[in-house]
Specification:
The protein has three helices and two strands; from the N terminus they run E-E-H-H-H. The protein is mainly α and 127 residues long. It has a two-stranded antiparallel ribbon with strand order 1-2. The N and C termini lie far apart (112 Å).
């Protein structure tokens, strides 16, 4: 038998709630529960080191993108680190889309500018 920590009433060992006051007693320990250790949080140096990967000449960007995919799906890493990796991938995708839109807009603007310049140059101007 055990005793309620709230009211002091005697409680049977298998009870989770006190029959007298309704307070929750200490939960029984599940012997079949897997005791997995909590992953260590990523240090500041770890974030800085991972952020420097794209600076590796020639292959840094490719390695960084591959590693972001790996880190984003690695369930052994802390959830905040996985979310950081996923956020980096999303920001890269947004940057690529915006860059493509900007290049297309510049090409359209340049083509229109050169057409207007060509039309002005070919027009007969009388002084």
């Amino acid at each position: 038998m055990k005793y309620c920590q709230n009211c002091g009433a005697q409680i049977e060992d298998d009870r989770i709630y006190c029959p007298n006051c309704g307070a929750q007693t200490n939960m029984p320990v599940n012997p079949y529960a897997v005791n997995t250790p909590k992953p260590e949080p990523v240090s500041i140096g770890g974030f800085i080191g991972r952020s420097l990967i794209p600076l590796i000449p020639f292959v840094g960007g490719i390695v960084y993108i591959i590693m972001l995919f790996i880190w984003g799906g690695d369930t052994t890493k802390e959830e905040s680190f996985r979310n950081w990796a996923k956020a980096q991938l999303i920001m890269m995708a947004i940057g690529i889309v915006l860059s493509i839109i900007l290049v297309i807009a510049l090409i359209v603007f340049a083509a229109g500018f050169f057409d207007a310049f060509k039309d002005a140059a070919s027009a007969d101007i009388i002084y």
